[in-house]
Amino acid sequence: MKLYQRILGHPFVYDRVRPLVVGGIDWSPLYRNLDVGPSDVILDVGCGTGVALQYLTGFGAYHGFDTDESAIESARKKTSALNVNYECRLVTPADIKRIAPTRIVLAGLLHHLTDDECLALLQMCAKAISVRRIATSDPVHLPRRYLSNLLTLLDRGKFVRKREQYLDLPRRAGLRVVREELVRSHPRSGIAMYLMMTLAPPTNPLVG
Ligand SMILES: C[S@@+](CC[C@H](N)C(=O)[O-])C[C@H]1O[C@@H](n2cnc3c(N)ncnc32)[C@H](O)[C@@H]1O
After folding, report:
1. Which positions of the chain have pLDDT values less than 50?
2. In a mutational test of the pocket of ligand 1, which residue from 67, 110, 121 has the highest number of ligand atoms less than 8 Å from its CB?
3. Is 110 in the pocket of ligand 1 (CB under 6 A)?
């Protein structure tokens, strides 16, 4: 891993410095889109340092996967809850079958993956009959948003896309885009723009 990537991925830099650079972070809209209830089983792919648990309460079980060892180590230190499990590796179809998630979080993940990697992951999610809803959030290239676009150059993810390019991915993977919105990293002070998508399998109406 390059030195720059390691510095940006360091849990202290990620949790404390990055919010200052983008003018504050508030992921409430993303987790509202997930619409979690007490019986839900959550799969968080690219869970990072455990940010999701700052927003999610009252779920059945939570499973976070990330390929970055220091992020997983930091996430594990933040909780001792018995219904929370972190794994430092890629998620597989066998994991999805075993976990049977009802809600999937892809927060800041798609812009780390090539189109083919995104499609493989989204198709894996689309095939899981347990899944009711998937919530994504990624930095996005937008016309005339010069500062936000400039910030994407500093991002560790190499595949920041335009809005239409993100929207194309779930459609190609056989998922429905039931909601999409452009959101500032923080409602009052955020300067970085994100595209949040709420996705559902075609056969599961968006209820419950
Ligand atoms: C921008 S961070 C988002 C972290 C967290 N979800 C959040 O909202 O703060 C992206 C994370 O995805 C992880 N990642 C990248 N590719 C991955 C993959 N193929 N599978 C799992 N995690 C991956 C990175 O290690 C990094 O922690």
Report:
1. 208
2. 67
3. no
